[in-house]
Amino acid sequence: IALVLALGYYQRPTFIYLAPLISGLYILLLTAPVGRAHSYATLQYSMRQRFCPILARAAVIMIVPWLLCWPWRVVAGEEVSSTANRVMGYGMTKQAMIPPDDPRLGSLGAEYGRVVKETMSDGGFHPDGLGLGAHFPMFVAMDELVSRVGPMAFIRDYPWRYVKGWFQTMIVYMGYPREPVDCENTMFSRAVFREWPPDYTLEKTLGWDVKYDGLLPPVYNGGGALGQFLALSIGPYSSLLLVATWTSLLWLVFALRKADPIAIAMAGVPLGFLALHALTLFSASRYSFPTYPLFLANLICVGHHVEQSLRRFLNGRAQNRDV
Question: Pick the residue with more confidence: 45 or 144?
C-alpha cells in the first residue's frame, strides 16, 4: 500500500496526502479481519489486543510514501510550491472567495467584481463558480496576485468564505451540476466524439513514425458509430455518476453508524480524495475524475446490499405468514 501511494505521487502529487487517511482505514480493517460490521467497542478491544503490530504496519503506510517521494520534493521543491500557489489562486478566483472590495485587488477589483456580479445575477446556485475560459486573462491576473500575497493570507482573512468555497467545490466534484462551467470532461468528449478535425491524421500525432505508411488508417471524417454512441452516453453517464457519488456519501454515513470497516474504507477513500482536492477550491474535472470508477463500483455494491436486505425481509415475512 505504501509503495502504491508513493508511485501514485509521481503520477499525481496529491496522492501523498491520502497517506494519513489510508493508514487510519487500514487500522480499522486490521481490527476487524472477518469483514463484518462490529461495534466500536469491539474494534477498540481488538485494537488493544494487537496494538503494537497494528501501529507498526500503519506507521509504514504513513511514513514510507513520504520517504520515497522525498527525492523529487528536494529536486522540484520550488516548482511544486509555485504550482500549489497557482492552483490556489485559480481556485480562489473561481469560487469568488476573495471579496471584490478587498483593497489588495487594486484596479483588478473592478473587473473581478463585474464578473462575479454577472455570474450571480440570476440569483441561482452556482457551485461551479466563475467561468475560467471566458475570463482567462482576469484569472491569470488574480492568480499572480494570490501567489504574491500568499493563499494563507486570504484564508486567514476570509475563513468562512473559504469553507463555503470548499463545500461548493465538493458539490461540483460529486457531479452537480451535470455539466459545470468549463467542464473538461465534456469539452474533451465533444471534441473527440463529435468535432474531430477531418485533417487530423496520425502524422500529427506525437510519437508517430511517418515511415510506416502502410499502417495508416483512413482519415476520420466524424460520424463514427462508436463516437456517436459515446457522445450519446455522456448524459446518462453524468446522471449515473451523480447518483453514485451521493449514494457513496450516504453509504459512508450508515457505515460509520454501524462501524463497518470495509464499507467505511470503500466509501471513505474516494470521498477523502475529493475532500483533499476541494481544499484548492479549483473545481476542475481532472481532479475528481480518478475517483469516478470507485464511485460507480460503490453503487453496484450498495445495490447488491439493498437487494440482499430486501430478500431477507421478504423471506422473513413469508416465514411469519407460514407460522
Answer: 144
